[in-house]
Automatic annotation (TrEMBL), chain A:
It holds the Pfam family DHODB_Fe-S_bind. [2Fe-2S] cluster binds at C220, C225, C228, C246. This is Dihydroorotate dehydrogenase electron transfer subunit. It comes from Ruminiclostridium sufflavum DSM 19573. Its cofactor is FAD; [2Fe-2S] cluster.
TrEMBL record, chain B:
The keyword NAD applies. The gene is pyrD. This is Dihydroorotate dehydrogenase. Its EC number is 1.3.-.-. It comes from Ruminiclostridium sufflavum DSM 19573. One of its GO terms (molecular function) is dihydroorotate dehydrogenase (NAD+) activity.
């Protein structure tokens, strides 16, 4: 169950240009948050009226804290990055989490840009014996949290669009290669929609289960306003409907999504 | 001093307090039950219902603007029958009054829905003749006095519960529209629905919303809403339900003073699910400060200069 909470910021750090990690003290969220879930955070000010949904990147149960990592994209996140201490108004944890089943012995996460962040908590929570993280960034300057991913996965590969760090390649090429070497039981992905669409297609072709974390402009964050629509399949035939990223998602099975 | 009485009667329905959650912002109530006690609300106007299920518009369905939002959901809903069978039982567990908001493509559809809902346990019907986000019908009925009069008198015949007509602000003279609704038998009117608006993505040189235009709400529209509520309330004798950007007790008091008998809270719920309790607290503080005992003491008490 999600709660409306007033919690304290315990740390704030700039990870790279425009990307920040906020550590928030919250016993409730640290105990209840599952990988793939998000917080809906109030940024403040009348210009950024709506809360901003930001996925949970990491949880520290010993210290009752959790991390969110976000990129400055507009007025809300711009305001948020200036909060270094004090209280934050959050609704959390929200959304449908990633499916972590003990039957998945070998897992592979595929992240693009800021979409990589929620995959860290997933890797840490998974009981799989073989964990692979494939991450793609725009450029060397955007590569963050690599050490944390290395500590959480057996294999970590990083590529960049411009080749300034790792190979110059798309992260989807890494996935194709990985499947040839060792086929994972499940692929989890989060990042730009075109990347996730490709990941879903690759997984489906190889008959691998795949979960995607979708993104859409949200209103309430709890399934009441119905604005964050995501076209999904309904029943066994060609019927479809609009599911909602905040409540039915953000995590969907890739085969349930109508990719357009 | 006596206990403050916030109860209000609208068309024979006794609301425990004048706060009603605005249609389209509160789903069918259950999403918010995790955050507040729904019993504390005067009423809930549920997500707009249509005769058949509607899938709604493609995303993006929302854009943020200074102190406001523009939405174009396009009446996504499971249809009136599914609402009665699957969502009403949950809502009836609470003492809060339930208003069914209905929208249709034709007069016949509205009448059919009113008849179907007549057999249900809902407390009132709010007729949406002002949705800016669907292509056929709906808004067309709400923009002329003649249109309002025709649809209101037709639907009223099928209503077992009180009929509230929800008015659009996208008209040149709200008074004539309000009077037409009253003349045709409306038991109450609610306003304002959202203001037709546009948000532009300058990088894509396209509208932000997939449906191009949408309806604007939030604190930015409050002054316009207040003016229209004032005008409508002074043109009719039936009770007026005011809405548009209400986020605090003071905001609600402004609408009551302008002539509203009750208020609806919409966009503010997205920002803060606990806002109804805060608004009620604010109203009570105002009452204490000025030694009012009843809502009726302040309705329409705005004195023009």
């Amino acid at each position: 169950m999600s709660k409306l909470l007033k919690e304290q910021i315990s740390d704030m750090q700039m990870l790279c240009e425009d990307v920040y990690r906020m550590k928030i003290k919250s016993e409730y969220v640290s105990l209840n948050a599952k990988p793939g879930q998000f917080v809906n955070i109030r940024c403040g000010g009348i210009d950024a009226l709506l809360r901003r949904p930001i996925s949970i990147c990491d949880v520290d149960r010993e210290n009752n804290t959790f991390d969110i990592v976000f990129q400055i994209k507009g007025k809300g996140t711009e305001k948020l990055c200036h909060k270094c201490a004090g209280e934050v108004d959050i609704m959390a944890p929200l959304g449908n989490p990633f499916s972590l089943d003990d039957k998945y012995k070998s897992i592979c996460v595929v992240g693009g840009g800021i979409g990589t962040f929620p995959l860290l908590y997933l890797l840490k929570s998974s009981t799989a014996s073989e964990k692979t993280a494939l991450m793609g960034f725009r450029s060397e300057s955007a590569v963050v949290l690599e050490e944390q991913f290395k500590a959480a996965a057996n294999t970590v590969e990083v590529v960049t669009d411009d080749g300034t760090y790792g190979k110059k390649a798309f992260v989807t090429e890494l996935l194709e290669q990985r499947i040839l070497e060792q086929k994972p039981d499940i692929v989890y992905t989060c990042g730009p929609a075109p990347m996730m669409r490709k990941v879903a297609a690759i997984a489906e072709k190889s008959d691998i289960a795949c979960q995607v974390s979708m993104e859409q402009r949200m209103g309430c964050g709890i399934g009441a306003c119905l604005v964050c629509a995501c076209k999904t399949k309904k029943g066994g035939n060609d019927d479809w409907g609009f599911s909602h990223v905040c409540k039915d998602g953000p995590v969907f099975w890739s085969t349930d999504v109508c990719w357009e | 001093m006596n206990e403050i009485d916030l109860s209000v009667d609208i068309a024979g329905i006794g609301f425990e307090n004048p706060l009603i959650m605005a249609s389209g912002t509160y789903g069918f109530g259950k999403e918010y039950a995790e955050y507040i006690d729904l019993n504390e609300l005067g009423g809930i106007s549920v997500k707009g219902l249509t005769l058949q299920e509607r899938k709604g518009n493609p995303p993006p369905r929302i854009a943020e603007t200074p102190a406001g939002i523009i939405n174009s959901v396009g009446l996504q809903n499971p249809g009136v029958h599914a609402f009665i069978n699957e969502d009403m039982p949950f809502l009836k567990k609470y003492k809060t009054k339930i208003i069914a908001n209905i929208a249709g493509n034709t007069v016949e559809e509205y009448c059919q829905m009113a008849e179907i809902l007549g057999a249900s346990e809902i407390d009132a019907i709010e007729m949406n003749v002002s949705c800016p986000n669907v292509k056929a019908g709906c808004l067309a009925f709400g923009t002329t006095p003649k249109g309002i009069e025709e649809i209101t008198s037709a639907v009223k015949k099928y209503c077992r519960q009180p009929l509230i007509v929800k008015l659009t602000p996208n008209v040149s003279d709200i008074r004539s529209i309000a009077m037409a609704a009253e003349a045709a038998g409306a038991d109450s009117i609610s306003l304002i629905n959202t203001i037709l608006a546009l948000a532009v993505d300058i990088h894509k040189r396209k509208p932000v919303l997939a449906n191009n235009f949408g309806g604007m709400s939030g604190p930015a529209v409050k002054p316009i809403a207040l003016r229209m509520v004032y005008e409508a309330a002074h043109a009719v004798k039936i009770p007026v339900i005011g809405m548009g950007g209400i986020s605090s007790g003071d905001d609600a008091i402004e609408f009551l003073l302008a002539g509203a008998s009750a208020v609806m809270v919409g966009t503010a719920n997205f920002v803060n699910p606990a806002v109804p309790a805060e608004i009620l607290k604010g109203i009570k503080e105002y009452f204490k400060r000025y030694k009012y005992n009843s809502i009726n003491d302040i309705i329409g008490k705005l004195e023009l200069n």
